[in-house]
Amino acid sequence: MSAALLAWYDAHARVLPWRVPPGSGERADPYRVWLSEVMLQQTTVAAVKDYFHSFTRLWPTVEALAAAKDEDVMGRWAGLGYYARARNLLKCARVVAERGGFPDTAEGLRELPGIGPYTAAAVAAIAFDRPETVVDGNVERVMARLHAVEEPLPGSKPLLTAHAAALTPKARPGDYAQAVMDLGATICTPKSPACGICPWREPCKARAEGIAAGLPKKTPKKPKPVRLGHAYVIRRADGAFLLERRPEKGLLGGMLGWPGSVWAEEAPAREPPLPAALEEIGEVRHTFTHFHLILRVHAGQAGAEAPEGLDWQRLSPAALPTVMRKAYDLAATSPALNVAGD
């Protein structure tokens, strides 16, 4: 089965900027493999490509990334979400640069900051051709259909991983890992799988039983709670904005943002960070992993000294995390901010 899949992969592999062509004899750069895998967590290939090109243009090696300023990396990450990944990216790059390169085993990779079992297996297989079992959402779907596993996720994860491990070959394990992911991304897709052209069509139990499109089953998720808050977009006459640097730990850790209230299930009190004539101009909505957020946005101009913990700064909106950028985009349309007057 692995031979049939590798033959299909040799002919149909996706062209991705972090890959080397199958069968080329080239060894994948562990830095590019690791960077792509971190970016791809909770994110699609289409969304990652531009960020990957930007990062590798600015920081073409792990040593270059390790030497970068935190704020520069966080700014370039803005929009990819899950900002703890960017903080761990820098921590890991600095450890790897100090030790002189990436470990070439999954065990060694797991000792690095921010690298869990999946990323360690992926880098070990793809960059170092170790026979590791790499299981992402695509692989889970392929295994569930191949073996007609009807137990829902996440409870079926151990069984699906065991099925994937049983098929992982010792020959070309890096290409094989990418082949299974490509199979799930291009043929064994979540909806309307193209079973007629699948290289694993014959052994696929779910296809034979006519249940492929319904697998894998998933345990229904609980509805996400809604949290409410305020954000204050305040501009000084010289064009500087009042900003805060969020704590290193927690949501949007280390990122620039607007001063505001706590985010709570009950609407918090409106408490601007300094005396100013602020206009409530509307709301922005954003969804995090565990909750939906509704922010009431207040905008206006002021010239007072910045309170403790805040700072007047020139702003590049692109450096803001997505929810803060949404608040800026809304505020920038308001006469209360007078951005258009510059």
Outline type: globular
Order of helices and strands: HHHHHHHHHHHHEEEEEEH
Low-confidence stretches are none
CATH architecture of the largest domain: Orthogonal Bundle
- Give the mean pLDDT: 94
The CATH superfamily of the largest domain appears as Hypothetical protein, domain 2
Helical coverage, percent range: 25-40%
The CATH class of the largest domain is identified as Mainly Alpha
Q: For the terminal residues, how far apart are their CA atoms? A: 64 Å
Alpha carbon gyration radius:
24 Å
- Biggest β-sheet description: 3 strands, mixed
Query: How many strand segments?
Result: 6
CATH topology of the largest domain: Endonuclease III, domain 1
Structural class: alpha+beta
> How many structural domains can be distinguished in the coordinates?
2
DSSP summary: helix tally: 13
Which sequence of strands runs across the widest sheet?
1-5-4
Please provide a written account of the structure:
With 342 residues, the protein is α+β, with helices and mostly antiparallel strands. The protein has two domains: 2-134 and 150-185, Hypothetical protein, domain 2 (Endonuclease III, domain 1), CATH 1.10.340; 226-341, Nucleoside Triphosphate Pyrophosphohydrolase, CATH 3.90.79.10. The protein is 39% helix and 12% strand. The protein is built from 13 helices and six strands. It has helices at residues 2-12, 30-40, 45-58, 62-66, 70-77, 84-99, 106-110, 117-128, 137-146, 157-167, 173-186, 205-209, 322-331, and strands at residues 226-235, 241-245, 256-257, 279-287, 292-301, 310-313. It has a three-stranded mixed beta sheet with strand order 1-5-4, covered by helices on one side. Helix 2 packs across helix 3 (45-58) and helix 9 (137-146) crosses helix 11. The longest helix is centred in the first third of the chain and has 16 residues, at 84-99. The chain is globular and about 70 Å long. The termini are far apart. The mean pLDDT is 94.
